């Protein structure tokens, strides 16, 4: 409602005086404030806040009258009455300066385009020069306790028990009456009032009194602390016609303030609470409505230490009350008791170091115009320290001493909700607040709500831009238009959209009285003292009246609203002296020429818009309905307004000022009709009136003969009359309904939302029979459900099931300490933040309590797609569980089993229960699981549903509730399932969990961080930095290995304890890991094996050494090779057609490109791949490089050369430009990157021009290089394969080395392996297996995959050597082995000699154009163990050092 903002301002009085002001009184319009000190009456102006005039009493007169005590203005601001200590009333005339004199005038720079011709325009911005003139004083001969102004009279209460009635003008004896309090009969209600006085009022007088216009009576506090209400039975106040009622059981009253709009009387008590009474309309007795008091829950320190209530102040719009106590502090409550602000707690009461501040004690306060400011006079003692300090400062300063300034008045600044004065904004789903010079709104990012440029499948009804001002055009929105779509995305941030009100409009029309926002949240309109202005968020511009005379000739009386792209205004026209309803089009200029004007017969008090209708509430207590229609026949669109219906309410409304809001809605009680014809929901079915907090509903009377719509011509459709009103609810502050409809969320959209102060919110929910069944006769059609929320509601998002609000936050400022601290710095800096709250769980719970589970289910299913629906379910379980499990008495009918059964209807049942359990304390778990089921069963359900993360949460619960054996058994089950699904994070947690169970360490912190992520480059950095060229000597390699062991600390899995301390638990875990690794290797899932090893720190090399002759064998080389191609997305090689002469004889290009490729091995590591997910499904993506060449997956094994060649040049050019243009580090990208978007084949990547390239190659060379590149897989797969090759080499699994060497087409690998086969340590079956496998590959290549032929030709000498060594004579083909070093041993290993010779051999003897794509740097993997270092030794080293326990990221 109202929110504090910023720091309070301090106004200094410019006159030198030792007196302190202690009493402030506003004039009726609150433009002037009378401020009293002991002998001084000052008048301050509101904007600018300056002192206008001060009257100082002479010493002689002050001695005669006594000091000033209270002041009161005459309602027309022409006089002020001041009460003095010795019983005198002093009357002052307030005289205008005349001659247009102003005390302060605005000064404009030269050439400023300000209009000064309009009469009255300049005066609006000036502080007028007033003077005060004292008239004859009136002596009442007794101390004066209270002053109260009526229209023509001044009521004065004196301490001798009299009530004096003075005439403002005729102040002789004739204009004066006195009523003795003892002659007024007081009773408990007006019915028993005939028996004479029932209160003994001897010696009692009125110490505080205030007049209530709408109750026509006086709320009084008597000197004995009793509370009463005195009402005149006739029209004048005379002795025999006054009647009093008093409130029972209260005798500590201190002060009173009345609320005219809601007919409430707020009495302050000595206990510190405020009792708010209403008058019962039937008996006339005083009934307690509610209390305003601090609760021990929120204010445990101060709730009972505030002292008596000192002052209560209702805001000008009567929507909030400010309270202060004798001990200081300010507290703000809404009209029905919702607590908004209190300065006795949090940052207001404590400094940042925790020391307590003394609250500022207040002697008087008053709200400023429209409630934007609160003027506060602090107590005298609050300022003495400050004064002394000021005097000291003045003595220190050398300059002439200034007069001591009065530290006069604190001015607190507020921003308030637009609902307080313009309740028609309750149909919108935005929060709009206005301060005195700016608007705050919660509209989100424009691009989210309307994307004007992007076409949408469901275009937003406002997404077309207006050609004139670029703002969205409003089209008639369909009933199901998705207006609230995108609103959920706007709730996350807390920032406001702040719009500064145009200064030109503000300075002549301050204060802003009304503000409105349109449905889309894109346009705002404001109205001040005169005229109006509007603003568009799209153009970021204000529109003001071009003609100032037109602006000054109208004032908005009944409020503002938006209808489509028109501003609807109920205003008073000063020229014609009549009320009008005007519509201004938004994109036209703001001018009466473009307005459509309708004359009204009576003053409009309230206005609202529903679909294409306007509803007006008028001062004669009647309601008018008008229809609106947009017309586009003229160049400027206009609207035609037609009167539909008038409804007189004077029988039901005692005073027109009591109507807080009026709303047209489609809500009605009988839902049978709604079911048959849903379009009826769009019609204006009922009127909702908030009458002083009572919500009254008038429904259309459908009891008469019904006419079918088709039978009536459209133009003379007779509207149905309204039934007599029904009261729906009490204590209502705001009402929200919507005119949209949505078949899926009918419960929420056809409901009525009420905000009821301290009672929270209520929703009047429709109940629908399920599946169009006949409704039960006993089931009511609607139900009113109350629920509490923690924020003050300002808007309801109907479909999103959210309430939006705002809250005050404070920021501490400890700039100045000690005695020099200025008064305003005692307060923190206040800000306003957006808040939102879910309410769905409250409603579901209320429905379940009332056995309306079917309705709850329908409602929940309609909201199940909301992003926070799981949170709603959790909240519901949590709230019910906390209440029932901590209850001291047994609950006869517990709700938790019902809630549990309700949640099982939704798929997120298992998650909801476990999340709720994890967030509640252990003591409540038994109660929870008694209702929802055994956690073991729930765990097994999670496993069956493959929801492993939820199962892991249940495991934690089981571990707390069951014996360790049970939790180990379930943990093992989950661990195996997680391994199978490749959930590595979960596996790491499970290993830690199992170890902790085994060693009984569940209480100690886990040995590894809970979210152990492998370091981003761990494994590869290790591997890359170990790349040693093969020409190095074997001992250099060995030392390099040891050095690296020291320098690279590998991130590993859970740290292994010393072998002696290895417990059975570790063995148990290892057995499971070994079993999984064996399973992967049997299924030829090398990529998964690599991930498994890297993610879980599995010692792959040591394990492979042990399994070398068991599971680490290759049964079928061909299928293994095919599986690798599939898993690593590696293309099968293709034969380039027609390359006759080899362009690469000089090897120039080869060296350049290989250095490039060396650079290109960027550090993107396996972590960035899909390692954490399941192995990639080998769909057509696995062959995408061939697809780019025009191949399909089916005929891939034998690619027709001509076909691939016909597409190859374009592809090649694209690739070379990618390689040669970026010299910096880059990765070639995955196989799918380049072809999925087909940008390569389309030639999007232009050929790089000669100058920027370091190479200038012929077409044939380009074709050759690009063919080699096209036969390679993704860079990432290449790195992974090299790593696995290195692992298998170290472990001595030579068969796998052959398969990986083949897929990489790396001749050196094959040469090395065949060299090793001669070693005596290699078992004979391995040699046989390699030989058989290579023969099978050869046969398959000849038959199915000719792309491998060139490579097999290249390694022919080694193959021949292998056959020879087995004494199988096979005639060599065209190649002679050239200088193959068959002799193992020596300083150089066979591999190192092979490299240079292979170059020569290739250059000399390879068939032209078929050079193998050995562009990889030859030594990009570590040296395998040589014959000097037998495999047994290698195995030991591998195990002891944990060398390859490397996390491959």
Explain what this protein looks like in three dimensions.
- The chain is α+β, with helices and mostly antiparallel strands and 1449 residues long.
- It contains 37 helices and 58 strands.
- The strands form 14 sheets. Strands 1, 30, 31, 32, 33, 34 and 35 form a 7-stranded antiparallel β-sheet that branches. Strands 6, 7, 8, 11 and 12 form a 5-stranded antiparallel β-sheet that branches. Strands 17-21-20-19-18 form a 5-stranded mixed β-sheet, with no helix packed on it.
- Strand 6 (68-73) and strand 7 form a beta hairpin.
- Helix 32 (1307-1317) runs parallel beside helix 35 (1356-1365).
- Residues 389-406, 445-490, 671-681, 711-715, 1001-1062, 1138-1255 and 1367-1449 have low confidence and may be disordered.
Topology diagram in text:
Blueprint: E1 2-13, E2 23-26, E3 32-37, E4 40-45, E5 51-56, H1 59-65, E6 68-73, E7 79-84, E8 88-96, E9 102-104, E10 127-128, E11 130-134, E12 138-139, E13 144-149, E14 153-158, E15 162-167, E16 176-180, E17 186-187, E18 206-212, E19 217-222, E20 227-232, E21 242-246, E22 253-259, E23 264-269, E24 274-279, E25 286-292, E26 309-314, E27 320-325, E28 330-334, E29 339-342, H2 346-349, E30 362-367, E31 373-378, H3 381-396, E32 406-417, E33 432-434, E34 438-441, H4 446-449, E35 497-500, H5 503-509, E36 514-517, E37 523-527, E38 533-536, E39 541-543, H6 548-552, E40 554-563, E41 566-573, E42 578-585, E43 596-599, E44 604-610, E45 613-618, E46 622-631, E47 638-648, E48 659-665, H7 672-676, E49 686-691, E50 694-699, E51 726-729, E52 734-736, H8 746-749, E53 752-755, E54 761-766, E55 782-787, E56 792-797, E57 802-811, E58 829-838, H9 840-849, H10 853-862, H11 869-885, H12 896-903, H13 909-919, H14 925-932, H15 935-944, H16 948-961, H17 964-981, H18 984-999, H19 1018-1025, H20 1034-1047, H21 1064-1082, H22 1086-1096, ...
Parallel strand pairs: 17-21
Antiparallel strand pairs: 1-32, 2-3, 3-4, 4-5, 6-7, 7-8, 8-11, 8-12, 9-10, 13-14, 14-15, 15-16, 18-19, 19-20, 20-21, 22-23, 23-24, 24-25, 26-27, 27-28, 28-29, 30-31, 31-32, 32-33, 33-34, 34-35, 36-37, 37-38, 38-39, 40-41, 41-42, 42-43, 44-45, 45-46, 46-47, 48-49, 49-50, 50-51, 52-53, 53-54, ...
């Amino acid at each position: 409602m109202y929110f504090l903002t910023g720091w309070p301002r301090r106004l200094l009085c410019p006159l030198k005086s030792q007196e302190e002001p202690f009493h402030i009184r506003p004039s009726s319009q609150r433009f002037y404030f009378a401020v009293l000190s002991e002998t001084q009456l000052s008048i301050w102006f509101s904007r600018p806040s300056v002192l206008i005039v001060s009257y100082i009493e002479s010493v002689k007169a002050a001695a005669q009258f006594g000091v000033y005590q209270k002041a009161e203005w005459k309602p027309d601001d022409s006089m002020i009455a001041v009460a003095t200590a010795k019983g005198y009333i002093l009357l002052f005339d307030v005289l205008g300066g005349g001659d247009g004199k102003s005390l302060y005038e605005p000064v404009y720079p030269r050439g400023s385009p300000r209009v000064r011709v309009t009469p009255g325009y300049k005066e609006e911005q000036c502080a007028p020069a007033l003077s005060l003139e004292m008239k004859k004083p009136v002596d009442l001969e007794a101390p004066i306790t209270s002053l109260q102004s009526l229209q023509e009279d001044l009521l004065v209460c004196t301490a001798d028990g009299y009530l004096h009635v003075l005439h403002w003008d005729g102040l002789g004896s004739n204009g004066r009456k006195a009523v003795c309090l003892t002659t007024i009969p007081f009773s408990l209600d007006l019915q028993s009032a005939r028996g004479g006085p029932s209160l003994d009022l001897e010696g009692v007088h009125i110490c505080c009194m205030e007049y209530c216009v709408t109750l026509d009576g006086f709320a009084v506090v008597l000197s004995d602390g009793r509370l009463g209400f005195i009402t005149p039975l006739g029209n004048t106040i005379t002795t025999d016609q006054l009647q009093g009622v008093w409130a029972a059981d209260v005798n500590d009253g201190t002060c009173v303030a009345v609320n005219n709009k809601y007919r409430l009387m707020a009495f302050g008590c000595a206990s510190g609470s405020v009792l708010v009474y209403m008058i019962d309309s039937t008996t006339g007795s005083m009934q307690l409505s509610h209390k305003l008091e601090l609760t021990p829950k929120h204010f445990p320190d101060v709730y009972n230490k505030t002292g008596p209530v000192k002052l209560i102040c209702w805001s000008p719009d009567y929507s909030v009350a400010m309270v202060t106590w004798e001990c200081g502090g300010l507290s703000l409550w809404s009209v029905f008791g919702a607590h908004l602000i209190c300065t006795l707690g949090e940052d207001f009461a404590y400094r940042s170091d925790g020391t307590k501040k003394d609250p500022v004690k207040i002697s008087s306060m008053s709200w400023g115009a429209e409630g934007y400011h609160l003027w506060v006079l602090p107590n005298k003692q609050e300022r003495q320290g400050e004064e002394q300090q000021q005097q000291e400062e003045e003595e220190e300063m050398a300059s002439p001493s200034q007069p001591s300034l009065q530290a006069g008045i604190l001015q607190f600044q507020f921003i308030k909700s637009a609902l307080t004065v313009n309740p028609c904004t309750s149909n919108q789903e935005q929060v709009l607040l206005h301060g005195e010079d700016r608007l705050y709104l919660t509209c989100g990012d424009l691009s989210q709500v309307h994307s004007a440029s992007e076409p949408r499948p469901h275009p937003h009804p406002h997404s077309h831009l207006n050609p004139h001002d670029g703002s969205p055009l409003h089209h008639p929105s369909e009933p199901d238009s998705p207006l609230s779509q995108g609103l959920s995305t706007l709730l996350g941030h807390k920032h406001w959209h702040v719009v500064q009100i145009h200064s030109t409009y503000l300075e002549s029309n301050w204060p802003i009285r009304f503000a409105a926002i349109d449905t889309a949240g894109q346009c705002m309109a404001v109205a001040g003292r005169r005229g109006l202005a509007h603003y568009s968020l799209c153009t970021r511009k204000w529109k003001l009246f071009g003609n100032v005379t037109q602006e000054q000739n109208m004032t908005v009386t009944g409020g503002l609203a938006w209808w489509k792209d028109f501003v609807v205004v109920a205003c008073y026209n000063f020229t014609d002296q009549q009320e009008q309803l005007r519509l201004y089009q938004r994109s036209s200029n703001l001018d009466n020429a473009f307005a459509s004007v309708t004359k009204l017969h009576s003053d409009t008090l309230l206005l609202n818009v529903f679909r294409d209708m306007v509803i007006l509430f008028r001062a004669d207590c009647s309601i008018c309905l008008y229809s609106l229609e947009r017309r586009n026949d003229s160049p400027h669109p206009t609207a035609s307004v037609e009167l539909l219906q008038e409804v007189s309410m004077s029988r039901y409304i005692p005073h027109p000022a009591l109507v807080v809001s009026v709303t047209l809605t489609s809500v009605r009680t009988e839902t049978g009709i709604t079911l048959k014809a849903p379009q009826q929901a769009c019609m204006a079915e009922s009127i909702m009136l908030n009458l002083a907090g009572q919500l009254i509903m008038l429904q259309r009377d459908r009891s008469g003969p019904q006419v079918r719509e088709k039978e009536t011509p459209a133009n003379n459709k007779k509207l149905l009359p309204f039934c007599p009103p029904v009261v729906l609810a009490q204590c209502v502050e705001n009402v929200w309904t919507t005119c949209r409809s949505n078949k899926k969320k009918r419960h929420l959209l056809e409901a009525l939302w009420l905000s009821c102060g301290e009672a929270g919110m209520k929703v009047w929910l429709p109940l629908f029979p399920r599946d169009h069944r006949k409704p039960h006769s006993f089931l009511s059609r609607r139900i009113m459900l109350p629920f509490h929320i923690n924020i003050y509601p300002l808007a309801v998002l109907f479909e999103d099931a959210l309430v939006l609000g705002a809250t005050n936050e404070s920021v501490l400022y400890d700039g100045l300490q000690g005695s020099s601290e200025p008064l305003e710095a005692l307060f923190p800096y206040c800000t306003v933040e957006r808040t939102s709250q879910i309410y769905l769980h409250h409603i579901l719970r209320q429905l379940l309590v009332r056995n309306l589970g079917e309705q709850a289910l329908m409602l929940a299913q309609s909201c199940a797609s909301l992003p926070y629906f799981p949170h709603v379910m959790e909240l519901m379980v949590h709230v019910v569980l906390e209440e029932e499990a901590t209850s001291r008495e047994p609950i006869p009918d517990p709700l938790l089993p019902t809630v549990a059964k309700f949640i099982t209807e939704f798929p997120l049942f298992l998650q909801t229960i476990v999340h709720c359990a994890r967030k509640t304390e252990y003591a409540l778990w038994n109660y929870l699981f008694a209702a929802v089921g055994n956690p073991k069963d729930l765990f097994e359900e999670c496993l069956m549903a493959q929801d492993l993360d939820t199962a892991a949460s249940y495991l934690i619960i089981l571990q707390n509730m069951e014996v360790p054996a049970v939790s180990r058994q379930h943990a093992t089950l989950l661990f195996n399932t997680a391994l199978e699904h490749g959930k590595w994070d979960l596996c790491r947690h499970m290993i830690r969990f199992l170890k902790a169970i085994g060693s009984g360490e569940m209480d100690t912190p886990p040995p590894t961080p809970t979210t152990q992520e492998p370091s981003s480059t761990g494994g590869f950095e290790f591997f890359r930095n170990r790349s040693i060229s093969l020409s190095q000597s074997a001992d250099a390699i060995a030392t390099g290995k040891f050095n690296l062991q020291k320098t690279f600390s590998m991130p590993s899995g859970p740290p292994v304890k010393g072998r002696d301390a290895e417990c059975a638990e570790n063995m148990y875990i290892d057995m499971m890991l070994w079993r999984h690794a064996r399973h992967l290797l049997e299924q030829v899932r090398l990529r998964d094996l690599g991930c498994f090893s890297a993610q879980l720190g599995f010692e792959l090399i040591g394990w492979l050494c042990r399994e070398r002759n068991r599971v680490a064998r290759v049964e079928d080389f061909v299928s293994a090779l095919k599986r690798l191609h599939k898993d690593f997305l590696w293309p099968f090689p293709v034969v380039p057609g027609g390359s006759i002469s080899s362009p690469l004889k000089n090897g120039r290009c080869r060296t350049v490109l290989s250095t490039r490729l060396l650079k290109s091995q960027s550090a993107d590591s396996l972590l960035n791949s899909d390692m954490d997910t399941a192995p990639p499904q080998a769909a057509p993506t696995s062959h995408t490089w061939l697809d780019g060449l025009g191949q399909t997956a089916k005929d891939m094994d034998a690619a027709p050369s001509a076909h691939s060649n016909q597409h190859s040049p374009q592809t090649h050019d694209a690739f070379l430009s990618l390689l040669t243009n970026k010299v910096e580090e880059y990765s070639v990208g995955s196989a799918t990157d380049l072809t999925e978007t087909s940008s390569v084949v389309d030639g999007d990547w232009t050929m790089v021009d000669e100058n920027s390239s370091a190479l200038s190659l012929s077409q044939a060379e380009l074709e050759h290089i690009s063919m080699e590149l096209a036969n390679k897989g993704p860079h990432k797969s290449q790195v992974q394969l090299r790593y696995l090759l290195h692992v298998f080499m170290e472990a001595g699994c030579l068969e796998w080395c052959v398969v990986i060497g083949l897929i990489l087409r790396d001749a050196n690998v094959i040469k090395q392996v065949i060299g090793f086969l001669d070693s005596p340590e290699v078992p004979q079956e391995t040699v046989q297996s390699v030989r058989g496998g290579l023969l099978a590959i050869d046969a398959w290549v000849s038959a199915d995959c000719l792309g491998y032929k060139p490579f097999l030709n290249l390694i022919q000498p080694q193959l021949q050597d292998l056959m020879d060594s087995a004494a199988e004579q096979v005639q060599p083909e065209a190649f002679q082995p050239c200088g193959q070093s068959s002799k193992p041993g020596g300083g150089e290993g066979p591999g190192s000699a092979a490299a240079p010779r292979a170059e020569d051999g290739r250059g000399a003897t390879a068939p032209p154009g078929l050079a193998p794509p050995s562009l990889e740097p030859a030594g990009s993997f570590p040296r395998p163990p040589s014959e000097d270092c037998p495999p047994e030794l290698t195995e030991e080293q591998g195990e002891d050092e944990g060398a390859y326990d490397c996390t491959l990221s």
